Known about the structure:
Blueprint: E1 3-6, H1 10-21, E2 26-29, H2 38-44, E3 48-50, H3 53-57, E4 61-64, H4 71-74, E5 85-88, E6 93-94, E7 99-100, H5 108-115, E8 120-123, H6 130-135, E9 138-139, E10 142-150, H7 153-165, E11 169-172, E12 195-196
Parallel strand pairs: 1-2, 1-4, 2-3, 4-5, 5-8, 10-11
Antiparallel strand pairs: 6-7, 8-10, 9-10, 10-12
Amino acid sequence: MTVGIIGAGRIGRAVAILSLRAGRSVVISNSQGPDSLASLVRELGSGVRASTVQDAAAQELVVLAVPWINVPEAIADVPPWNGRILVDATNAAIMPDVRPADLGGKASSEVVAQLALGARVVKGFNTLLAAVLASGPRVSGGQRVLFFSGDDALAKKAFLEFISSAGFAGIDLGMLANSHVQQFPGGPLAAINFIRLP
Protein backbone atom coordinates (compact mmCIF):
# COMPACT_ATOMS: atom_id res chain seq x y z
CA MET A 1 0.00 0.00 0.00
CA THR A 2 1.36 3.39 -1.02
CA VAL A 3 0.69 6.19 1.46
CA GLY A 4 -0.35 9.55 0.05
CA ILE A 5 0.38 12.57 2.21
CA ILE A 6 -1.29 15.95 1.76
CA GLY A 7 0.90 18.45 3.59
CA ALA A 8 4.68 18.44 3.86
CA GLY A 9 5.20 20.21 7.16
CA ARG A 10 6.45 18.62 10.36
CA ILE A 11 3.64 16.07 10.73
CA GLY A 12 3.64 15.19 7.04
CA ARG A 13 7.40 14.61 7.19
CA ALA A 14 7.04 12.48 10.35
CA VAL A 15 4.35 10.33 8.72
CA ALA A 16 6.58 9.87 5.68
CA ILE A 17 9.41 8.65 7.92
CA LEU A 18 7.24 6.14 9.78
CA SER A 19 5.67 4.99 6.50
CA LEU A 20 9.13 4.15 5.16
CA ARG A 21 9.88 2.27 8.39
CA ALA A 22 6.70 0.28 7.77
CA GLY A 23 7.92 -0.67 4.30
CA ARG A 24 5.44 1.57 2.47
CA SER A 25 6.22 3.85 -0.44
CA VAL A 26 5.15 7.48 -0.10
CA VAL A 27 3.67 10.11 -2.38
CA ILE A 28 4.00 13.48 -0.65
CA SER A 29 2.41 16.74 -1.76
CA ASN A 30 1.77 20.31 -0.75
CA SER A 31 -0.03 23.37 -2.07
CA GLN A 32 3.12 24.73 -3.76
CA GLY A 33 3.69 21.80 -6.10
CA PRO A 34 6.18 18.93 -6.34
CA ASP A 35 9.17 21.07 -7.34
CA SER A 36 9.07 22.75 -3.92
CA LEU A 37 9.62 19.35 -2.26
CA ALA A 38 12.84 18.34 -4.00
CA SER A 39 15.04 18.87 -0.95
CA LEU A 40 12.63 16.98 1.33
CA VAL A 41 12.53 14.03 -1.06
CA ARG A 42 16.34 13.95 -1.14
CA GLU A 43 16.39 14.05 2.67
CA LEU A 44 13.87 11.23 3.05
CA GLY A 45 15.50 9.08 0.38
CA SER A 46 14.38 6.08 -1.62
CA GLY A 47 10.69 5.22 -1.51
CA VAL A 48 9.41 8.81 -1.50
CA ARG A 49 8.32 10.85 -4.48
CA ALA A 50 6.82 14.32 -4.64
CA SER A 51 3.69 14.83 -6.68
CA THR A 52 0.46 16.80 -6.84
CA VAL A 53 -2.20 16.83 -4.14
CA GLN A 54 -4.49 15.04 -6.58
CA ASP A 55 -1.98 12.21 -7.02
CA ALA A 56 -1.38 11.89 -3.27
CA ALA A 57 -5.14 11.81 -2.67
CA ALA A 58 -5.56 9.01 -5.23
CA GLN A 59 -3.59 6.52 -3.09
CA GLU A 60 -5.33 3.78 -1.13
CA LEU A 61 -4.47 5.39 2.21
CA VAL A 62 -4.17 9.18 2.41
CA VAL A 63 -2.96 11.27 5.35
CA LEU A 64 -4.20 14.84 5.71
CA ALA A 65 -1.55 16.87 7.54
CA VAL A 66 -2.22 20.56 6.97
CA PRO A 67 -3.08 23.44 9.31
CA TRP A 68 -6.75 23.43 10.25
CA ILE A 69 -7.51 26.67 8.41
CA ASN A 70 -6.24 25.08 5.17
CA VAL A 71 -8.28 21.86 5.34
CA PRO A 72 -11.15 22.85 2.99
CA GLU A 73 -8.80 24.18 0.32
CA ALA A 74 -6.41 21.23 0.63
CA ILE A 75 -9.03 18.65 -0.32
CA ALA A 76 -11.30 20.77 -2.51
CA ASP A 77 -10.01 19.52 -5.87
CA VAL A 78 -9.11 15.90 -5.18
CA PRO A 79 -10.62 12.96 -7.10
CA PRO A 80 -13.82 11.40 -5.72
CA TRP A 81 -12.88 9.45 -2.60
CA ASN A 82 -14.77 6.29 -3.52
CA GLY A 83 -14.08 4.62 -0.17
CA ARG A 84 -10.37 5.38 0.08
CA ILE A 85 -9.05 5.80 3.62
CA LEU A 86 -8.39 9.36 4.76
CA VAL A 87 -6.39 9.64 7.98
CA ASP A 88 -7.08 13.01 9.54
CA ALA A 89 -3.92 14.12 11.33
CA THR A 90 -5.07 17.71 11.77
CA ASN A 91 -5.82 19.56 14.97
CA ALA A 92 -8.58 22.15 15.02
CA ALA A 93 -6.43 24.95 16.41
CA ILE A 94 -6.55 28.53 15.18
CA MET A 95 -3.08 30.00 15.06
CA PRO A 96 -1.10 31.86 16.25
CA ASP A 97 -2.93 32.01 19.58
CA VAL A 98 -3.71 28.24 19.57
CA ARG A 99 -7.38 28.63 20.33
CA PRO A 100 -9.84 25.85 19.51
CA ALA A 101 -11.88 26.31 16.35
CA ASP A 102 -15.65 26.62 16.69
CA LEU A 103 -16.88 23.26 15.42
CA GLY A 104 -20.51 23.56 16.45
CA GLY A 105 -20.19 20.73 18.95
CA LYS A 106 -18.69 18.28 16.46
CA ALA A 107 -15.34 16.54 16.66
CA SER A 108 -12.93 17.97 14.10
CA SER A 109 -12.75 14.72 12.14
CA GLU A 110 -16.53 14.71 11.77
CA VAL A 111 -16.13 18.06 10.03
CA VAL A 112 -13.39 16.60 7.82
CA ALA A 113 -15.67 13.66 6.97
CA GLN A 114 -18.36 16.09 5.82
CA LEU A 115 -15.83 17.81 3.54
CA ALA A 116 -14.42 14.54 2.18
CA LEU A 117 -17.63 12.78 1.20
CA GLY A 118 -17.04 9.18 0.25
CA ALA A 119 -13.82 8.86 2.27
CA ARG A 120 -13.52 6.42 5.14
CA VAL A 121 -12.10 8.80 7.74
CA VAL A 122 -9.84 7.68 10.56
CA LYS A 123 -8.54 10.13 13.15
CA GLY A 124 -4.87 9.47 13.85
CA PHE A 125 -1.31 10.81 14.05
CA ASN A 126 -2.45 13.99 15.80
CA THR A 127 -1.75 13.34 19.48
CA LEU A 128 2.06 13.24 19.41
CA LEU A 129 4.39 16.12 18.65
CA ALA A 130 5.98 15.71 15.22
CA ALA A 131 9.48 15.25 16.63
CA VAL A 132 8.25 12.46 18.91
CA LEU A 133 6.28 10.80 16.10
CA ALA A 134 9.34 10.82 13.83
CA SER A 135 11.76 9.66 16.53
CA GLY A 136 10.60 6.08 16.46
CA PRO A 137 8.13 3.74 18.16
CA ARG A 138 10.42 1.99 20.65
CA VAL A 139 11.33 3.62 23.95
CA SER A 140 12.10 2.44 27.49
CA GLY A 141 11.51 -1.17 26.52
CA GLY A 142 8.00 -0.46 25.27
CA GLN A 143 6.07 0.95 22.32
CA ARG A 144 4.75 4.44 21.77
CA VAL A 145 0.97 4.53 21.67
CA LEU A 146 -1.02 5.97 18.78
CA PHE A 147 -4.71 6.56 19.42
CA PHE A 148 -7.19 6.36 16.58
CA SER A 149 -10.92 6.42 15.97
CA GLY A 150 -13.34 6.07 13.10
CA ASP A 151 -16.71 4.79 11.97
CA ASP A 152 -15.48 2.17 9.46
CA ALA A 153 -14.14 -1.02 11.02
CA LEU A 154 -12.14 -2.11 7.97
CA ALA A 155 -10.53 1.32 7.61
CA LYS A 156 -9.49 1.20 11.25
CA LYS A 157 -8.13 -2.30 10.79
CA ALA A 158 -6.00 -1.10 7.85
CA PHE A 159 -4.74 1.83 9.90
CA LEU A 160 -3.88 -0.41 12.83
CA GLU A 161 -1.97 -2.79 10.54
CA PHE A 162 -0.11 0.19 9.10
CA ILE A 163 1.02 1.66 12.44
CA SER A 164 1.74 -1.79 13.88
CA SER A 165 4.05 -2.54 10.98
CA ALA A 166 5.85 0.71 11.83
CA GLY A 167 6.28 -0.54 15.42
CA PHE A 168 3.64 1.51 17.26
CA ALA A 169 0.98 0.26 19.66
CA GLY A 170 -2.48 1.28 18.48
CA ILE A 171 -5.46 1.94 20.75
CA ASP A 172 -8.90 2.15 19.15
CA LEU A 173 -11.09 4.78 20.81
CA GLY A 174 -14.24 3.80 18.94
CA MET A 175 -16.40 6.00 16.74
CA LEU A 176 -15.28 9.18 15.02
CA ALA A 177 -17.42 11.22 17.42
CA ASN A 178 -15.07 10.06 20.19
CA SER A 179 -12.07 11.67 18.48
CA HIS A 180 -12.65 14.89 20.41
CA VAL A 181 -10.54 13.36 23.19
CA GLN A 182 -7.60 13.28 20.74
CA GLN A 183 -7.96 16.89 19.66
CA PHE A 184 -5.49 19.63 20.45
CA PRO A 185 -6.13 21.92 22.18
CA GLY A 186 -8.45 20.61 24.85
CA GLY A 187 -8.50 16.85 24.41
CA PRO A 188 -7.24 14.87 27.41
CA LEU A 189 -5.06 12.60 25.22
CA ALA A 190 -3.45 15.34 23.14
CA ALA A 191 0.34 15.79 23.26
CA ILE A 192 0.85 13.01 25.84
CA ASN A 193 3.51 10.45 24.99
CA PHE A 194 2.07 7.18 26.31
CA ILE A 195 4.24 4.05 26.30
CA ARG A 196 2.82 0.52 26.36
CA LEU A 197 5.13 -1.76 28.29
CA PRO A 198 5.36 -5.52 27.67
